[in-house]
Specification:
heterodimer, A: alpha/beta, Rossmann fold, eight-stranded mixed sheet, disordered N terminus, disordered C terminus, B: five-stranded antiparallel sheet, five-stranded mixed sheet, 19 strands, elongated
């Protein structure tokens, strides 16, 4: 699994470098018409820190307005590198971005406000959710796949018509005290209550 | 503006005032409406700009997430929501690089007025038909895209329509109100003035200054009415005084006229008596003298009366005295008649040279016996206008006078002086006239008779008689003499430029024509009352011009015209026809007269200047001095 990921990672890095050298993040977002693997990583990386513009954490999550936004990403996920690259220049809601990698859920930085787990469902997701519920820090949990959001992730990416879109579980976020801007919700598919779908 | 003033001035005061009120109201109203519209439009434009700005801001805010997450479909949904506003034509969402990201175009949208947004663009843009606003989409103080909203100006056009409708409504409401107001207000000024004008008209038409303008007004109108009435009162008073004066004057004139008429009557009576007396006396004097002469003749000639040389001499002397007495009476009668103007002069064109020759011939024997030479140097062609008999008398008197006082070897010359072409001079080389006598020589009231060189005895009335004759012709005579060097009698006759034959059966017409034509210097007239008489006179005098009426008894103007053309000398006499008939049987009298041979035509009643001009034209007397000053 590590080797397979390694090859994937190299390709992704190469593609990201190429892409960033030609365009900037906004362009990556604006032009996500045909999404390859490397593009997908870039788009997701951009989405991750842009989300901060439309999310309101409960008070006390950040010390002050200039406190950095810590994003924890699974080390093996191609988004990790894309995000690291983007974080050098970008800010999220005026905050500097710090990217932390992890392998095991226990390694997740306790100060992370956004956690991206990649394609995680079922028991693995449940473990992370249970871990987080015991933590003091309130984190916005993002995963991949439509099921993840149904199973408790606050937000998850999925592919539709070759475009990366996202589904938001308003109840999960609400339970954690996180308020999501209607502007973001408008772009998203909603999970949770049946009546919200469609 | 000036044209409007002129039109207004020609209107009655009432309408002028109404127009003034209505126009003033209208001007005020228009200015008020215009100001209102300007103020309102400013607000409307501002509101439109504000509304578009708000819409743009909201759209920018709403679409920021869509831009960030590249969700153009959602962006389109968002901006489409703003399309509910009818005036919004299109909304464009541009990304950070000004590339079109999403858009909304209203159904039936007009052509886009959005400039090429690759260029730097302003925040807002007004065109003739639209308002465009560029609104940046900002996220964390970074511009992540643009919203471009284009709105048409239908909102503003709607407003214009509203103004139009409102203005019309206001005008429709205002028009009758202002008309009623103006009609009511103008009366305040125009009614008193039209009352005043009415009174003024009545006064001027009826010439009755007893009228007064009635009305109780204050200030200017009051002053005007008061002044007008006072003026009328003054005129009325003056008029009354004038009437009184006139009546007095009339009475005075009537009185004077009566006096004068009486005096005239008395004078006429006296003159008539004097004439009667003179003619009686002269006749009565002439008869016994004639008897004496007859008896004296018998005494000389009857064979049974024995004559001694002494008695023959006495008889002859008695006879001569009687003859002189008879002649004196004749001259006195003539002088009297000439002085009173009762002698009618039969003036005509005569040639003095011929008459003088005849007179010289008559006196030649006497002159020869005394050794006196008589010479006539008057040119044969010289003409004067005079009564031939009186002219004979004149020359005879002057010649006899000369012969009487001259001695043998003296000479009498009769000539026309070079510097006075109309004059005749009788000059002699005799003893001249005594300087004491000279001033009274021609005066009939002072007896100057002296005995001639051969003991001739004159009446002492010869020279005064000459003077009367010449003056009766409108001329003059004067004497120049140096004692011992002869005497010079200079007679001037008025120049005769033209003889005009006036033909009319109405004496008043002839009198009037004469009065008018006398303004031409040197004209003389002969008169006829019909064509027949005119023919005789024309034949005898050959006038320079005939002015004839057309409608006369015996022989009318047309017949006269053709008769004149038949005879040789009268053929060339120009004729001016005068008629009161303007046309006869559809042909103009002028045309008929000219066709019959008239040179010109004047319409009766004659226009004075026109007649003078035509007569002068015919006589070629344009330079006559009478033409100046009068015309």
């Amino acid at each position: 699994m590590g080797r397979a990921l390694h090859g994937y990672k190299v390709k992704a890095l190469l593609a990201t470098w190429l892409l960033l050298s030609l365009t900037n993040t906004h362009q990556a977002l604006g032009q996500q018409a045909s999404t390859g693997l490397a593009d997908a990583a870039n788009v997701k990386a951009a989405f991750l820190y842009q989300i901060a513009n439309f999310i309101e954490w409960p008070p006390g999550v950040f010390i002050d307005k200039s406190s950095p936004l810590v994003i924890a990403v699974h080390e093996n996920n191609p988004v990790m590198n894309a995000l690291r690259t983007a974080a050098r220049e970008a800010t999220a809601a005026g905050r500097p971005i710090i990217v932390r990698g992890y392998i095991w859920p226990d390694d997740i930085d306790p100060s992370a406000s956004i956690i991206y787990t990649g394609a995680t469902t079922g028991k693995a997701l449940h473990n992370i959710l249970s871990l987080l519920s015991h933590r003091k820090q309130i984190s916005f949990l993002v995963a991949d796949g439509e099921e993840a959001a149904q199973e408790g992730a606050m937000m998850s990416f999925y592919l539709e018509d070759n475009r990366i879109r996202f589904i938001i579980n308003v109840n999960a976020a609400g339970a954690a005290g996180i308020v999501i801007s209607s502007k973001l919700l408008r772009l998203a598919k909603l999970a949770g209550e049946k009546t919200w779908e469609k | 503006m000036k044209a409007m003033d002129n039109v207004l001035r020609r209107m009655p005061l009432k309408w002028q005032l109404m127009f003034m009120v209505i126009f003033s109201c209208l001007a005020t109203l228009i200015i008020a409406i215009a100001l209102f519209i300007i103020a309102d439009l400013t607000v409307v434009y501002k509101n439109l700009a504000k509304e578009i700005q708000v819409n743009a801001s909201v759209a920018a805010e709403q679409s920021s997430a869509a831009l960030l997450f590249g969700d153009s479909k959602t962006a389109e949904d968002i901006v489409a929501a703003f399309g509910a506003e009818e005036h919004i034509q299109r909304i464009l969402v541009l990304d950070h690089d000004k590339k079109l990201f999403a858009s909304y175009v209203a159904p039936n949208a007009s052509a886009s007025t959005i400039p090429d947004f690759k260029d730097p663009f302003p925040d807002l843009l007004w065109t003739n038909s639209s308002h465009v606003r560029f609104q940046p989409v900002v996220m964390n103080s970074k511009t992540i895209g643009w919203i471009v909203i284009e709105s048409d100006l239908s909102m503003i056009y709607d407003r214009y329509r509203l103004y139009g409708v409102l203005s019309l409504v206001i005008l429709f409401v205002w028009a009758p109100v202002s008309f009623l107001l103006a009609a009511r207000l103008q009366g305040l000024i125009s009614e008193p003035l039209s009352d005043l004008a009415k009174v003024a008209r009545q006064v001027s038409l009826q010439r009755d200054y007893a009228h007064r303008a009635l009305g109780d007004y204050a200030y200017e109108l009051g002053d005007l009415f008061k002044a007008f009435n006072e003026m009328l009162a003054q005129i009325q008073a003056k008029d009354r005084r004038l009437e009184d004066h006139a009546a007095q004057l009339e009475a005075k004139v009537a009185e004077r006229t009566r006096d004068l008429e009486g005096a005239k009557e008395r004078a006429e009576k006296a003159t008539a008596m004097k004439d009667k007396y003179v003619s009686l006396v002269s006749h009565d004097l002439r008869s016994p003298i004639a008897s004496i002469l007859g008896i004296l003749g018998l005494m000389t000639n009857l064979p049974e009366i024995k004559q001694s040389p002494k008695s023959t001499d006495l008889t002859l002397r008695a006879s001569n005295s009687a003859k002189r007495l008879l002649r004196m009476i004749d001259i006195l009668l003539d002088i009297g008649r000439l002085q009173t103007g009762r002698m009618m002069l039969a003036k005509e064109r005569i040639k003095p040279a011929q008459i003088i020759d005849q007179q010289i011939e008559g006196i030649l024997a006497l002159a020869n016996s005394k050794g006196i030479v008589l010479e006539n140097k008057i040119p044969a062609e010289m003409e004067i206008f005079a009564d031939q008999n009186l002219f004979n008398q004149l020359i005879l008197n002057l010649l006899s006078n000369a012969v009487k006082f001259l001695r043998g070897g003296d000479k009498v010359t009769i000539y026309q002086p070079r510097d006075l072409p109309g004059a005749i001079v009788v000059q002699d080389t005799g003893p001249g006239v005594d300087s004491d006598l000279l001033p009274h020589l021609l005066d009939s009231s002072v007896k100057t008779s002296t005995t001639g060189t051969s003991g001739e005895r004159g009446t002492g009335l010869g020279l005064p008689y000459c003077r009367e004759i010449i003056e009766a012709h409108g001329g003059s005579i004067r004497v120049e003499s140096i004692q011992g060097q002869g005497a010079k009698f200079i007679m001037e006759f008025p120049p005769v430029c033209a003889l005009i034959l006036l033909v009319d059966d109405q004496p008043a017409q002839i009198l009037m024509l004469k009065q008018i034509l006398s303004r031409i210097e040197g004209v003389d007239f002969i008169e006829a009352e019909n064509g027949k008489q005119a023919m005789e006179l024309a034949d005898k005098f050959t006038p320079d011009l005939v002015i004839t009426d057309m409608n006369m008894p015996v022989m009318n103007g047309f017949e006269l015209l053709s008769a004149l053309k038949e005879v040789s000398p009268s053929k060339k006499i120009p004729v001016i026809a005068a008629s009161s008939i303007s046309d006869s049987h559809g042909r103009s009298a002028r045309k008929l007269a000219l066709e019959s041979g008239a040179l010109d035509f004047v319409q009766k009643p004659v226009d004075e200047e026109d007649l003078l001009r035509r007569v002068r034209d015919v006589l070629k007397l344009n330079k006559a001095p009478g033409a100046q000053g009068v015309s």
